[in-house]
DNA sequence: GTATTATCTTAACAACGTACAGATCAGATA
DNA sequence: TATCTGATCTGTACGTTGTTAAGATAATAC
């Protein structure tokens, strides 16, 4: 009845071949699913291997150890995070204050849409911080935020950041990060009048919060 | 030569008695030492038992499980945290803005002085959130912060919090919490000109950050 | 003094991360 | 085509973890 495709290299085979063919990516996908379902602490390398259908020793050929696999997850997280911040920045157009506000919203929005990834990314003990490319990907995301702060303060690219600029940057970063962290931690859940889930909370309270960001004094 | 005190109930004995006598507190002390040395993830129940000089099964008579022990640690953390916030509040005197700023400083200062405890307290998955007394101790600490916000907005105790008041509260909480979390996470370490350790960072940059807190609009 | 209860030990179990040796397969070389 | 080489995966095993069950010991109550 059904036509059967067999044995071609890329076709889905009922019985998995001895060689998996796509193990690395599937381990990453499994890891992301696990931390989403069970939290960052709920991750185990063996469970990831189980979901990919391989033995517990198989991942070692693609990642140095469990923290290495989570390093790859963090790397992809910072990539997506940077992209989200850049998109927010672009959405802000030429108005420096709007760029900053849009980036702030994008920051929190990313955390809401990627809770497990976000929480992993800021738990340095959980993954291999030396994982190749990770540091620069994090620096890239940070740089996008710094760019908007520089613009808001009228600093050119060559100009060094002033102490006041650093203070401003830290204040902006602190407020969006704190908001994200507290929301994901459920700390705001106790507050009454916040029915409607996290999205509603963000939509309701983030704009006025960002509006409270200090105007640049320069 | 030496006079020997033996067998009195409270005296330190070279060979520990079969009954420990002070196991619960020593387990808590050991747990706090471990998370300080090795991070929250570095904690193991067996290591805590080892340091207290008892078998791995002994803690079960004082705490339901490992998360229960960390629940006690978190409980004591929230107690000390609330005390610190209250002290800051008192230091602010009668000026509502000063009360709030002093509490903000106390918030960050607590995190800097109790990094492991602070990080544990805001990692709900790590400890038993149902641990007796924990929820109310957390609510107490939160209430102290809310009190200063109410005062800053001129709200009486009986008066309900307005949506704007909640927004203000969340902004204040977010900024001090985000600052604490990012500092402890080492995220600010990359920023140049911040040599001198965390204490220096706080002393230099927290005051201007707090000065950027929005004035109450009422 | 005896019984009860609280406290601790010993022993065991399943799950974990990881290392090691060997099996299997893909692709290059000849 | 045949063989070799390296990459990929399995099977097995070791030490560590949290937790439980059964028994030993000491403090307390009666």
How are the elements arranged and paired?
The structure is a homodimer of 218-residue chains.
Chain A: H1 23-38, H2 45-52, H3 66-91, H4 96-113, H5 115-121, H6 134-152, H7 163-184, H8 197-211
Helix pairs in contact in A: 1-2, 1-3, 3-4, 3-5, 3-6, 4-5, 4-6, 4-7, 4-8, 6-7, 7-8
The first copy, chain A, binds a DNA duplex (30 and 30 nucleotides) through loops.
Short description, anyone?
The first copy, chain A, is mainly α and 218 residues long. Chain A has helices at 23-38, 45-52, 66-91, 96-113, 115-121, 134-152, 163-184, 197-211. The longest helix of chain A is centred in the middle third of the chain and has 26 residues, at 66-91.
List the main descriptive attributes of the protein structure presented here.
homodimer; 218 residues; mainly alpha; 0% strand; globular; disordered N terminus; DNA-binding
Give an overview in words:
The structure is a homodimer of 218-residue chains. By secondary structure, chain A is mostly helical. In chain A, 60% of the residues lie in helices and 0% in strands. Chain A is built from eight helices and no strands. Chain A has helices spanning 23-38, 45-52, 66-91, 96-113, 115-121, 134-152, 163-184, 197-211. In chain A, helix 3 crosses helix 5 (115-121). Chain A is globular, with a radius of gyration of 21 Å. The A-B interface holds A 39-42, 122, 124-126, 139, 142, 161, 163-164, 166-171, 173-179, 181-182, 185-188, 190-194, 204-205, 208-209, 212, 214 and B 39-42, 122, 124-126, 139, 142, 161, 163-164, 166-167, 169-171, 173-179, 181-182, 185-188, 190-194, 205, 208-209, 212, 214. Chain A binds a DNA duplex (30 and 30 nucleotides) through loops.
């Amino acid at each position: 009845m059904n036509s059967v495709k067999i044995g071609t290299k890329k076709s889905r085979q009922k019985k998995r071949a001895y060689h998996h063919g796509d193990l690395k990516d599937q381990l990453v996908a499994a890891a992301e699913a696990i931390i989403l379902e069970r939290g960052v602490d709920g991750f185990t390398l063996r469970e990831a291997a189980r979901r990919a259908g391989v033995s517990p020793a198989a991942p070692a050929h693609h990642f140095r150890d469990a923290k290495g696999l989570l390093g790859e997850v963090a790397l992809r997280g910072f990539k997506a995070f940077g992209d989200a911040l850049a998109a927010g920045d672009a959405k802000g157009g030429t108005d420096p204050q709007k760029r900053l506000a849009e980036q702030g919203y994008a920051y929190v929005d990313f955390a809401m849409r990627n809770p497990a990834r976000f929480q992993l990314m800021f738990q340095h003990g959980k993954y291999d911080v030396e994982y190749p490319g990770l540091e620069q990907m994090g620096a890239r995301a940070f740089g996008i935020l710094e760019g908007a702060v520089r613009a808001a303060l009228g600093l050119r690219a060559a100009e060094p950041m002033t102490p006041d600029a650093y203070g401003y940057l830290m204040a902006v970063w602190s407020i969006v990060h704190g908001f994200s962290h507290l929301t994901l931690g459920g700390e705001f859940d106790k507050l009454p009048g916040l029915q409607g889930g996290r999205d509603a909370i963000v939509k309701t309270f983030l704009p006025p919060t960002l509006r409270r960001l200090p105007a640049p004094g320069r």
